[in-house]
Amino acid sequence: MRRTWMLGGVGGMLLVSTLLARPGIVKTRDGQTVAGEVTEQPDQIIVESRGIHTTIDRENLRSITYSDTIEQETRKRLAKLTPYDVAGRVELSQWLFENNAYDLAMNILDDAARIQPRNEDVIAMRRTVQRQMLLQESEQRKHAPVQLAAADNRPPAGAAPGRADAAAPSADGGRVLTPEEINEIKQREWQEGQWQVHVTFHNDVRHKYVAGSGQEPNTFNRLPPAQQAWAILMNGTPEMRKDVVLTNDPPAMATFKKVQQSLIYTGCANCHGGNKAQGNFTLHFPANSDAQTYTNFLILERYQTKVGDRQYSMIDRTQPDASLLLEFALPPDIGQPPHPKAANYKGAVHSKADPRLKQAIDWIGALNPVTPDYSDIDLSARQASERPLVPPPASRPAAPHH
Question: In this predicted structure, what is the pLDDT of residue 347?
Protein backbone atom coordinates (compact mmCIF):
# COMPACT_ATOMS: atom_id res chain seq x y z
CA MET A 1 0.00 0.00 0.00
CA ARG A 2 1.38 3.41 -0.91
CA ARG A 3 2.27 5.53 2.09
CA THR A 4 0.28 8.73 2.49
CA TRP A 5 2.69 11.64 2.16
CA MET A 6 2.69 14.99 3.85
CA LEU A 7 4.49 17.99 2.47
CA GLY A 8 6.46 20.07 4.89
CA GLY A 9 9.18 19.83 7.48
CA VAL A 10 12.72 20.99 7.84
CA GLY A 11 16.10 19.51 7.19
CA GLY A 12 18.70 18.91 4.52
CA MET A 13 21.50 16.46 4.38
CA LEU A 14 21.63 15.62 8.06
CA LEU A 15 24.22 13.62 9.90
CA VAL A 16 23.24 14.54 13.41
CA SER A 17 22.68 12.10 16.22
CA THR A 18 19.16 11.57 17.48
CA LEU A 19 17.20 8.77 19.00
CA LEU A 20 13.97 9.66 17.22
CA ALA A 21 13.03 7.60 14.16
CA ARG A 22 12.30 9.67 11.07
CA PRO A 23 11.44 8.54 7.54
CA GLY A 24 14.45 8.91 5.32
CA ILE A 25 16.95 7.42 2.90
CA VAL A 26 20.38 6.17 3.97
CA LYS A 27 23.22 5.75 1.48
CA THR A 28 26.38 3.84 2.34
CA ARG A 29 29.94 4.17 1.10
CA ASP A 30 29.76 0.70 -0.46
CA GLY A 31 26.86 1.73 -2.70
CA GLN A 32 23.77 0.51 -0.84
CA THR A 33 20.60 2.59 -0.48
CA VAL A 34 18.13 1.80 2.30
CA ALA A 35 14.83 3.63 2.85
CA GLY A 36 12.63 3.47 5.94
CA GLU A 37 12.32 4.76 9.50
CA VAL A 38 15.81 5.97 10.42
CA THR A 39 17.12 5.96 13.99
CA GLU A 40 20.54 7.50 14.59
CA GLN A 41 22.75 6.20 17.37
CA PRO A 42 26.30 7.25 18.26
CA ASP A 43 28.03 4.39 16.44
CA GLN A 44 25.42 3.13 14.00
CA ILE A 45 22.30 3.87 12.01
CA ILE A 46 19.24 1.60 12.21
CA VAL A 47 16.71 1.60 9.38
CA GLU A 48 13.38 -0.16 9.84
CA SER A 49 11.26 -0.96 6.78
CA ARG A 50 8.28 -3.37 6.77
CA GLY A 51 9.48 -4.98 9.99
CA ILE A 52 13.04 -5.51 8.73
CA HIS A 53 15.89 -3.83 10.64
CA THR A 54 19.09 -2.90 8.80
CA THR A 55 22.07 -1.76 10.88
CA ILE A 56 24.74 0.42 9.27
CA ASP A 57 28.02 1.38 10.94
CA ARG A 58 28.65 5.11 10.95
CA GLU A 59 32.04 4.62 9.33
CA ASN A 60 30.22 3.14 6.32
CA LEU A 61 27.66 5.96 6.19
CA ARG A 62 27.71 8.24 3.19
CA SER A 63 24.59 10.34 3.76
CA ILE A 64 21.09 10.52 5.21
CA THR A 65 18.32 12.38 3.45
CA TYR A 66 15.19 12.75 5.52
CA SER A 67 11.88 12.53 3.72
CA ASP A 68 10.52 15.74 5.15
CA THR A 69 13.32 17.57 3.34
CA ILE A 70 12.36 16.01 0.02
CA GLU A 71 8.68 16.62 0.68
CA GLN A 72 9.33 20.29 1.37
CA GLU A 73 11.28 20.65 -1.88
CA THR A 74 8.53 18.76 -3.74
CA ARG A 75 5.95 21.21 -2.48
CA LYS A 76 8.01 24.15 -3.70
CA ARG A 77 8.53 22.65 -7.15
CA LEU A 78 4.92 21.55 -7.49
CA ALA A 79 3.69 25.05 -6.62
CA LYS A 80 5.58 26.41 -9.65
CA LEU A 81 3.75 24.12 -12.08
CA THR A 82 0.52 24.99 -13.81
CA PRO A 83 -2.48 22.69 -13.21
CA TYR A 84 -1.97 21.06 -16.64
CA ASP A 85 1.84 20.85 -16.80
CA VAL A 86 2.31 17.12 -17.41
CA ALA A 87 5.91 17.43 -18.60
CA GLY A 88 6.83 19.33 -15.45
CA ARG A 89 5.28 16.61 -13.30
CA VAL A 90 7.19 13.90 -15.15
CA GLU A 91 10.40 15.87 -14.61
CA LEU A 92 9.58 16.23 -10.91
CA SER A 93 8.89 12.51 -10.60
CA GLN A 94 12.26 11.81 -12.25
CA TRP A 95 13.96 13.96 -9.61
CA LEU A 96 12.09 12.12 -6.86
CA PHE A 97 13.05 8.78 -8.43
CA GLU A 98 16.72 9.77 -8.44
CA ASN A 99 16.38 10.59 -4.74
CA ASN A 100 14.72 7.22 -4.00
CA ALA A 101 11.44 8.89 -3.02
CA TYR A 102 9.35 6.37 -4.95
CA ASP A 103 6.08 6.91 -3.07
CA LEU A 104 6.19 10.64 -3.77
CA ALA A 105 7.08 9.99 -7.40
CA MET A 106 4.05 7.73 -7.81
CA ASN A 107 1.76 10.36 -6.31
CA ILE A 108 3.04 12.97 -8.77
CA LEU A 109 2.67 10.53 -11.66
CA ASP A 110 -0.88 9.68 -10.57
CA ASP A 111 -1.65 13.38 -10.76
CA ALA A 112 -0.12 13.56 -14.24
CA ALA A 113 -2.08 10.48 -15.36
CA ARG A 114 -5.34 12.12 -14.33
CA ILE A 115 -4.49 15.03 -16.64
CA GLN A 116 -3.27 12.95 -19.61
CA PRO A 117 -4.04 9.23 -19.10
CA ARG A 118 -2.43 8.20 -22.41
CA ASN A 119 0.77 10.24 -22.13
CA GLU A 120 3.59 7.81 -23.04
CA ASP A 121 6.15 9.55 -20.81
CA VAL A 122 3.84 9.20 -17.82
CA ILE A 123 3.14 5.54 -18.54
CA ALA A 124 6.84 4.74 -19.01
CA MET A 125 7.87 6.57 -15.84
CA ARG A 126 5.17 4.84 -13.80
CA ARG A 127 6.51 1.46 -14.92
CA THR A 128 10.07 2.47 -14.05
CA VAL A 129 9.07 3.56 -10.55
CA GLN A 130 6.92 0.47 -9.97
CA ARG A 131 9.75 -1.84 -10.95
CA GLN A 132 12.21 -0.06 -8.68
CA MET A 133 9.77 -0.28 -5.77
CA LEU A 134 9.48 -4.03 -6.30
CA LEU A 135 13.27 -4.33 -6.56
CA GLN A 136 13.70 -2.40 -3.32
CA GLU A 137 11.25 -4.71 -1.53
CA SER A 138 13.13 -7.73 -2.88
CA GLU A 139 16.46 -6.37 -1.61
CA GLN A 140 14.96 -5.71 1.81
CA ARG A 141 13.75 -9.31 2.03
CA LYS A 142 17.25 -10.55 1.19
CA HIS A 143 18.56 -8.84 4.32
CA ALA A 144 15.86 -10.29 6.57
CA PRO A 145 17.10 -12.71 9.28
CA VAL A 146 17.17 -16.25 7.87
CA GLN A 147 15.52 -18.82 10.10
CA LEU A 148 15.87 -21.81 7.78
CA ALA A 149 18.19 -24.68 8.65
CA ALA A 150 19.91 -26.72 5.95
CA ALA A 151 17.60 -29.19 4.22
CA ASP A 152 14.70 -28.00 6.34
CA ASN A 153 11.67 -26.25 4.97
CA ARG A 154 9.68 -26.31 8.20
CA PRO A 155 9.71 -22.81 9.77
CA PRO A 156 10.18 -22.34 13.53
CA ALA A 157 7.04 -22.24 15.62
CA GLY A 158 5.32 -18.90 15.33
CA ALA A 159 7.38 -17.76 12.35
CA ALA A 160 5.55 -15.81 9.70
CA PRO A 161 5.69 -17.23 6.19
CA GLY A 162 8.05 -15.55 3.74
CA ARG A 163 10.82 -16.19 1.27
CA ALA A 164 13.30 -17.03 4.03
CA ASP A 165 10.83 -19.45 5.56
CA ALA A 166 10.01 -22.43 3.38
CA ALA A 167 6.52 -23.69 2.92
CA ALA A 168 6.29 -26.05 5.90
CA PRO A 169 4.34 -28.89 4.30
CA SER A 170 3.15 -31.74 6.43
CA ALA A 171 4.53 -35.26 6.06
CA ASP A 172 2.11 -35.98 3.22
CA GLY A 173 3.20 -32.91 1.30
CA GLY A 174 0.76 -30.39 2.81
CA ARG A 175 -1.93 -28.54 0.91
CA VAL A 176 -1.54 -27.53 -2.70
CA LEU A 177 -2.25 -24.14 -4.19
CA THR A 178 -5.73 -23.00 -5.10
CA PRO A 179 -6.61 -21.93 -8.66
CA GLU A 180 -6.58 -18.32 -7.48
CA GLU A 181 -3.07 -18.71 -6.03
CA ILE A 182 -1.86 -20.43 -9.20
CA ASN A 183 -3.16 -17.49 -11.22
CA GLU A 184 -1.30 -15.09 -8.95
CA ILE A 185 1.96 -16.91 -9.58
CA LYS A 186 1.31 -16.91 -13.31
CA GLN A 187 0.73 -13.16 -13.20
CA ARG A 188 3.88 -12.49 -11.19
CA GLU A 189 6.11 -14.69 -13.36
CA TRP A 190 4.72 -13.27 -16.62
CA GLN A 191 6.96 -10.70 -18.31
CA GLU A 192 6.23 -7.86 -20.66
CA GLY A 193 6.49 -8.82 -24.32
CA GLN A 194 5.41 -12.43 -23.78
CA TRP A 195 2.17 -11.93 -25.66
CA GLN A 196 1.66 -15.64 -26.40
CA VAL A 197 -0.08 -15.96 -23.04
CA HIS A 198 -3.83 -16.69 -23.24
CA VAL A 199 -6.17 -14.68 -21.05
CA THR A 200 -9.79 -14.64 -20.00
CA PHE A 201 -11.51 -11.67 -18.36
CA HIS A 202 -14.22 -11.82 -15.71
CA ASN A 203 -16.77 -9.39 -14.25
CA ASP A 204 -16.51 -6.95 -17.16
CA VAL A 205 -13.05 -5.98 -15.92
CA ARG A 206 -11.95 -4.40 -19.21
CA HIS A 207 -14.86 -1.98 -19.17
CA LYS A 208 -14.15 -1.12 -15.53
CA TYR A 209 -10.48 -0.55 -16.28
CA VAL A 210 -11.15 1.76 -19.23
CA ALA A 211 -13.74 3.71 -17.24
CA GLY A 212 -11.39 4.12 -14.29
CA SER A 213 -8.22 4.91 -16.22
CA GLY A 214 -9.71 7.48 -18.55
CA GLN A 215 -8.12 5.72 -21.52
CA GLU A 216 -9.73 6.06 -24.92
CA PRO A 217 -11.92 2.92 -25.29
CA ASN A 218 -11.18 2.45 -29.00
CA THR A 219 -7.43 2.56 -28.39
CA PHE A 220 -7.65 -0.01 -25.60
CA ASN A 221 -10.03 -2.27 -27.52
CA ARG A 222 -7.65 -2.44 -30.48
CA LEU A 223 -4.98 -4.04 -28.28
CA PRO A 224 -4.62 -7.85 -28.34
CA PRO A 225 -6.10 -9.52 -25.22
CA ALA A 226 -2.66 -10.23 -23.74
CA GLN A 227 -1.68 -6.56 -23.95
CA GLN A 228 -5.01 -5.53 -22.47
CA ALA A 229 -4.35 -7.93 -19.60
CA TRP A 230 -0.86 -6.51 -19.09
CA ALA A 231 -2.23 -2.98 -18.90
CA ILE A 232 -4.75 -4.01 -16.24
CA LEU A 233 -2.12 -5.89 -14.20
CA MET A 234 0.30 -2.97 -14.31
CA ASN A 235 -2.14 -0.12 -13.74
CA GLY A 236 -5.43 -1.56 -12.47
CA THR A 237 -6.65 -2.04 -8.94
CA PRO A 238 -6.07 -5.27 -6.94
CA GLU A 239 -9.70 -6.23 -7.50
CA MET A 240 -9.29 -5.80 -11.25
CA ARG A 241 -6.20 -8.00 -11.28
CA LYS A 242 -8.15 -10.82 -9.70
CA ASP A 243 -10.45 -10.82 -12.73
CA VAL A 244 -7.56 -11.32 -15.20
CA VAL A 245 -7.02 -15.07 -15.52
CA LEU A 246 -4.10 -16.58 -17.43
CA THR A 247 -5.33 -19.84 -18.93
CA ASN A 248 -1.97 -21.19 -20.04
CA ASP A 249 1.53 -21.06 -18.56
CA PRO A 250 3.77 -18.04 -19.02
CA PRO A 251 7.06 -19.12 -20.65
CA ALA A 252 8.98 -19.42 -17.37
CA MET A 253 6.43 -21.80 -15.86
CA ALA A 254 6.12 -23.84 -19.06
CA THR A 255 9.88 -24.41 -18.93
CA PHE A 256 9.72 -25.21 -15.22
CA LYS A 257 7.45 -28.14 -16.00
CA LYS A 258 10.17 -29.55 -18.26
CA VAL A 259 12.87 -29.00 -15.62
CA GLN A 260 10.65 -30.61 -13.00
CA GLN A 261 10.18 -33.71 -15.12
CA SER A 262 13.76 -34.11 -16.34
CA LEU A 263 15.76 -33.04 -13.27
CA ILE A 264 13.73 -32.54 -10.12
CA TYR A 265 11.57 -35.63 -10.42
CA THR A 266 14.51 -37.92 -11.20
CA GLY A 267 16.68 -36.46 -8.46
CA CYS A 268 14.33 -35.62 -5.60
CA ALA A 269 11.27 -37.89 -5.75
CA ASN A 270 12.86 -40.90 -4.03
CA CYS A 271 13.64 -38.99 -0.85
CA HIS A 272 11.40 -35.91 -0.90
CA GLY A 273 8.17 -37.04 -2.52
CA GLY A 274 4.83 -38.01 -1.03
CA ASN A 275 5.25 -39.12 2.57
CA LYS A 276 9.05 -39.40 2.26
CA ALA A 277 9.79 -36.22 4.15
CA GLN A 278 13.54 -36.62 4.61
CA GLY A 279 15.06 -33.46 5.96
CA ASN A 280 11.52 -32.08 6.44
CA PHE A 281 11.68 -31.04 2.80
CA THR A 282 8.72 -32.41 0.86
CA LEU A 283 7.65 -31.91 -2.73
CA HIS A 284 4.54 -33.15 -4.50
CA PHE A 285 5.14 -36.03 -6.88
CA PRO A 286 4.38 -37.21 -9.48
CA ALA A 287 3.07 -33.64 -9.96
CA ASN A 288 0.41 -34.48 -12.51
CA SER A 289 -1.58 -31.29 -11.94
CA ASP A 290 -0.92 -27.57 -12.03
CA ALA A 291 -1.75 -27.42 -8.33
CA GLN A 292 1.10 -29.82 -7.50
CA THR A 293 3.51 -28.30 -10.01
CA TYR A 294 3.01 -24.69 -8.93
CA THR A 295 3.19 -25.72 -5.27
CA ASN A 296 6.54 -27.39 -5.93
CA PHE A 297 7.77 -24.23 -7.63
CA LEU A 298 6.79 -22.12 -4.63
CA ILE A 299 8.50 -24.50 -2.19
CA LEU A 300 11.70 -24.40 -4.23
CA GLU A 301 11.48 -20.62 -4.66
CA ARG A 302 11.31 -20.09 -0.90
CA TYR A 303 14.08 -22.46 0.10
CA GLN A 304 17.22 -20.79 1.44
CA THR A 305 20.04 -21.98 3.67
CA LYS A 306 23.34 -20.70 4.97
CA VAL A 307 26.57 -22.62 4.40
CA GLY A 308 29.56 -21.05 6.12
CA ASP A 309 29.31 -17.29 5.65
CA ARG A 310 27.26 -17.47 2.46
CA GLN A 311 23.53 -17.51 1.96
CA TYR A 312 22.28 -19.84 -0.79
CA SER A 313 18.90 -20.06 -2.52
CA MET A 314 17.43 -23.09 -4.21
CA ILE A 315 16.53 -20.73 -7.08
CA ASP A 316 19.02 -17.87 -7.37
CA ARG A 317 17.74 -15.40 -9.96
CA THR A 318 20.79 -13.14 -9.80
CA GLN A 319 23.34 -15.97 -10.11
CA PRO A 320 21.54 -18.90 -11.75
CA ASP A 321 24.61 -21.16 -11.82
CA ALA A 322 24.92 -20.79 -8.01
CA SER A 323 21.38 -22.11 -7.37
CA LEU A 324 21.19 -24.97 -4.89
CA LEU A 325 18.90 -26.77 -7.32
CA LEU A 326 21.92 -27.23 -9.58
CA GLU A 327 24.52 -27.91 -6.90
CA PHE A 328 22.34 -30.46 -5.12
CA ALA A 329 21.69 -32.23 -8.43
CA LEU A 330 25.41 -32.93 -8.80
CA PRO A 331 27.20 -35.83 -7.07
CA PRO A 332 27.98 -34.79 -3.47
CA ASP A 333 31.73 -34.73 -4.18
CA ILE A 334 31.21 -32.13 -6.95
CA GLY A 335 28.44 -29.85 -5.69
CA GLN A 336 29.52 -26.56 -4.08
CA PRO A 337 27.92 -26.68 -1.60
CA PRO A 338 27.21 -30.40 -1.76
CA HIS A 339 23.88 -32.05 -1.17
CA PRO A 340 23.49 -32.92 2.54
CA LYS A 341 24.60 -36.45 3.28
CA ALA A 342 21.89 -38.98 2.44
CA ALA A 343 22.07 -42.73 2.09
CA ASN A 344 22.56 -43.89 -1.51
CA TYR A 345 22.23 -40.39 -3.00
CA LYS A 346 24.77 -40.02 -5.80
CA GLY A 347 23.27 -37.04 -7.60
CA ALA A 348 20.59 -36.59 -10.23
CA VAL A 349 23.26 -35.99 -12.90
CA HIS A 350 26.83 -37.23 -13.26
CA SER A 351 28.59 -33.99 -14.21
CA LYS A 352 28.19 -30.28 -14.91
CA ALA A 353 28.10 -31.09 -18.62
CA ASP A 354 24.70 -32.76 -18.33
CA PRO A 355 22.23 -30.95 -20.66
CA ARG A 356 19.58 -31.06 -17.94
CA LEU A 357 21.70 -28.67 -15.86
CA LYS A 358 22.01 -26.27 -18.78
CA GLN A 359 18.25 -26.38 -19.25
CA ALA A 360 17.78 -25.53 -15.55
CA ILE A 361 20.35 -22.68 -15.68
CA ASP A 362 18.67 -21.21 -18.76
CA TRP A 363 15.28 -21.47 -17.07
CA ILE A 364 16.40 -19.69 -13.89
CA GLY A 365 18.16 -17.02 -15.93
CA ALA A 366 14.94 -16.37 -17.85
CA LEU A 367 12.89 -15.72 -14.69
CA ASN A 368 12.04 -12.18 -13.67
CA PRO A 369 15.22 -10.63 -12.23
CA VAL A 370 13.11 -9.13 -9.44
CA THR A 371 11.87 -11.89 -7.16
CA PRO A 372 8.09 -11.54 -6.68
CA ASP A 373 6.80 -11.35 -3.13
CA TYR A 374 5.09 -14.65 -2.34
CA SER A 375 4.96 -14.14 1.42
CA ASP A 376 1.17 -13.78 1.35
CA ILE A 377 0.71 -17.43 0.29
CA ASP A 378 0.82 -19.57 3.44
CA LEU A 379 1.28 -23.25 2.63
CA SER A 380 1.42 -24.19 6.30
CA ALA A 381 -2.29 -23.41 6.56
CA ARG A 382 -4.67 -26.23 5.75
CA GLN A 383 -6.81 -23.87 3.70
CA ALA A 384 -6.01 -20.78 1.71
CA SER A 385 -7.01 -17.52 3.36
CA GLU A 386 -8.59 -14.54 1.67
CA ARG A 387 -6.01 -11.85 0.98
CA PRO A 388 -5.48 -8.95 -1.39
CA LEU A 389 -3.55 -9.49 -4.57
CA VAL A 390 0.01 -8.17 -4.39
CA PRO A 391 1.40 -5.61 -6.83
CA PRO A 392 1.61 -6.53 -10.52
CA PRO A 393 4.53 -8.51 -11.92
CA ALA A 394 7.92 -6.92 -12.42
CA SER A 395 9.60 -7.50 -15.72
CA ARG A 396 12.61 -6.70 -17.79
CA PRO A 397 12.21 -3.54 -19.85
CA ALA A 398 10.85 -4.24 -23.30
CA ALA A 399 10.73 -2.22 -26.46
CA PRO A 400 7.51 -0.24 -26.81
CA HIS A 401 4.76 -1.89 -28.84
CA HIS A 402 2.74 0.10 -31.28
Answer: 75
